# Entry
Amino acid sequence: MLWGEKMDNKIEIQRIKTDLESNLGNKIKFASKRGRKKKVVRSGVIEGIYPNIFVIKVDPAIEDEEMVEQRVSYRYSDIITRTVELALCEE
# Structure
């Protein structure tokens, strides 16, 4: 591993964290990988920004019988590795 690569990742993670902080409370759509060929797309609200993770409060799915609050957390590096993809919802 080159030192420059590690520094670039730290800078990129800080940029992602700053972008998420500026959108705290905003509605987003997110897609997360659930295996080699399966991707789950949901919507929710960015609820919390922490040093190593961020939390999304997930909107209940239409097919859910119970309206249970669900939260998911991801690492900032999950965005870099494309394990999760985020997009702001237009209101």
Notes: The chain has two helices and five strands. The longest strand covers residues 39-49. The beta strands are 27-33, 39-49, 53-58, 70-75, 84-88.
